[in-house]
Amino acid sequence: MPLSTESQTDNDQYILIASLDNARNLSNILKAISLRDHAIFNATQNGLKVTVEDSKCLQANAFIQKDIFQEYIIKEDAVGFQVNLTVLLDCLNIFGGSTVPGVCTALKMCYNGYGHPLTLFLEEGGVVTVCKINTEEPEEPIDFDFCSTNVTNKVILQSDSLKEAFSELDMTSEVLQITMSPSHPYFRLSTFGNSGNAHYDYPKDSDMMELFQCTKTQTNRYKMSLLKPSTKALALSCKVSVRTDVRGFLSLQYLVRNDDGQICFVEYYCCPDEEAEEE
User: What count of other Cβ atoms lies within 10 Å of the Cβ of residue 99?
Assistant: First the structure.
């Protein structure tokens, strides 16, 4: 186990302890939601949920299950705090984020409750660095009220096909228009940029389409500036679930496999662009 020099007595003072043999498994998933400086951490018996929001229009959540950690101890039903995500990522990569095979930065993350800092013990090659990051009382995340019973359309795609679509669409467009329909064009992405209008269609029986469940035709536009940060998660993922509800709210759920082959999820919620809807 990494950082085994930490005694059991030291462990007793903390209400939350999470240890990883490879800190990059945490830093990669946090980079995928790093659209703002502040992140809300909510720890439960099942693992960590980290939330970042932008302008009350976009919410990104990273779900890091308990089983991802080599050690995960929580002494309360739920533990919550807010922390500067930029600072946290800088600390996690303090050894340079080595990609050399067999060289990993071990992490032990500890928290002792309200008013206390988040303490990181990082070890690489026998060198241990301790970082203490100030925490704040967590703000209440926006409830986007996105529930499965209100989902009208859902597709699951291979991430590579969505990456290909984004490479071909005109990203100078202010909006991304998504059409989902039980009939043609089934699933269409459209942009309206400097080079003119562009469309990217997916047949429902495409090899890249793992699931197609569309009950009604919906066309909604979303601000490209809000969706661009989600491409960080797309780059890491192998599958993506695209869902819309009756209001046109968008859920993008990315399945991310870490260096050890374990699965985490990153989910983005995005409001439809009301200005575009009114045009």
Answer: 8
